[in-house]
């Protein structure tokens, strides 16, 4: 008799509910290993180096950067857009996949949500520093004041402030609401009175009653409904920083969907970079399986293909427009002084993801890890190409110029990498990196113990 194929289990090893709790909470209860201490030492050193460069920039001014009259945006805005893009995968995995009832999200959503918060924190630093006078940052907020000055509501730079602050707030709420049941579990497991008191406070008195679960699930769906449109709006608004200008190479309507797909593309790559290391170091192979990696790789193929189509569309529209300035902007990207950046962008973002059409490569962890790093490098160069190559040669040849970053700019970027990875390393020591309650919720439909083919075959 024909039996329909059993889906690959999302939880391997025939785990019990108690084993799930013990194994996922082990990094919190146990002592940190040498690898964790080595990692956090490196990241904190990078963070302090970045803080020193930020302090130097604020003390001396933006003149310490490699910017000039022609290229007013360089590494600062490149890194800002890159970090905002990385933050997109967390909300996509958490909100949209929750609304579509995708069970494979349960093992990866927690770390993706945390990654979103840390990435947005890193992104928010760059516009603040780029102001030159960060103490006057409150000027961007529209409130009644005695100066008689109001913000320009027509400016997409102001929309950025609203969009990103809203995005961060909703993502923080969504992440924390999801954490509450697990914090209650950790509260009941830890032995230290101090830890028990801290986790007790953070759990808001969670008891696991039917009323608490009902409210928790309702709130999760409401926040997911709020967060889902933000995936589309936030990076669309970031793209408007460029698209509403008249600079050749920027003035294009394809930017919003192009930026959104690119953001999800780079965000999923960063999730893979983090999770492939995390599953190995924390012995979570039973929960973050090869099946999870393959599912994420499929989304990378889809979004990477959209990005590739956007690149080709840009070239076609520049040619079809008949506008010589637009045509030259794209010709200069590919053959001008920054051709190498364009080549890296096309290789990493368009060519390399197509290798994931092969199932063996899609399920190969080492290959996926290397490819995820390549994609993030490529997406960084995409932002660099869009910003710098469009500015350094515009309408007037007399104003053409070149740009190269200074050690201060490089140091600030290294500092944000240090901040991001320091926060992530602290996160995995304080909170469960996998949603315990959500994994248990899909256990009977997706756990190996309950989806064993031999046990389910009909005779």
SSE blueprint:
Elements (H helix, E strand, L loop, with lengths): L16 H13 L4 H27 L14 H12 L1 H12 L9 H22 L25 H34 L3 H10 L7 H34 L11 H27 L8 H32 L2 H12 L3 H13 L7 H4 L2 H28 L14 H24 L5 H6 L1 H4 L6 H4 L3
Helix pairs in contact: 2-15, 3-5, 3-9, 3-14, 4-5, 4-8, 4-9, 5-6, 5-15, 6-7, 6-8, 8-9, 9-10, 9-14, 10-11, 11-12, 12-14
Structure report:
The protein is an all-alpha fold. It has one domain (17-134, 153-448). The protein contains 18 helices and no strands. Helix 4 (88-99) crosses helix 8, helix 6 packs across helix 7 and helix 8 (210-243) packs across helix 9. The protein is globular, with a radius of gyration of 24 Å. Residues 454-459 have low confidence and may be disordered.
Concise overview:
Helices cover 69% and strands 0% of the residues. The protein has 459 residues and is mainly α.
Please trace the helix and strand order, writing H or E for each element.
HHHHHHHHHHHHHHHHHH
The proportion of strand residues reads under 5%
Total number of β-strand segments?
0
Number of helices, counting only DSSP H or I runs of 4 residues or more? 18
Q: Choose one word for the global shape.
A: globular
Distance between the termini: 7 Å
Q: Characterize the largest beta sheet: strand count, sense, and whether it forms a barrel.
A: none
Report the average pLDDT across residues.
Answer: 86
Rg (C-alpha, Å): 24 Å
Instruction: Give the number of domains.
Output: 1
